[in-house]
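Students often ask why we bother encoding 3D structure as a string. The short answer is that it lets us treat folding as translation between two languages. Here is a chain of 177 residues written in the first language.
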Amino acid sequence: MKYLLYFLAIFFLFILEAGVFSQFYFLPVIPPLVIVFSALLIPLDGRQLSIFSIIASGVLLDFLSSQPDGILLLSLVIACLVNYVLINWWLVRDYNIGILFISTAATILVYFVSVLILAKLFTVIGIGRDIEYGYLLTHGLVWSLLLGLVFTYPVYYYYLLLQKITQKNWVRKNKFA
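And here it is in the second language, the structure alphabet:
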């Protein structure tokens, strides 16, 4: 049941990202809410739930994009793996809000770099198409990083609300399981 709630939470963020924020024309890029949520799960939650959420987020991002063959899913998995190594091996085990901001920034940065590398690799193989690297590195990365850091705190409180829902037994547990 917890997996279903997390999938619905990711789907809600996906709807916000693709349906609501895409209509705000004053924003230069769409805020990466799904990527921020995946980045926050690495230091805050367990591995199994994080892996499930990362794969679900990547599949939803691939549905939204026009890139072929799971480039965004692979990029998100790579970015979250680098985030996991960064958080658990190099940074302190005391999780504070600074670690969450570092986690978000590192995930978005590695995500964009891995999208560029995988898009170029898929283009060389012949199953991808060219993207505008200059625009993506200068405009897309900077604005996505800025908006990702701005939305880190609200997404963190969204995660805390989700934890409260799952821990307070708001969802009725199955007696027969």
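Translate back mentally: The longest helix spans residues 97-125. Keep this in mind for the problem set.
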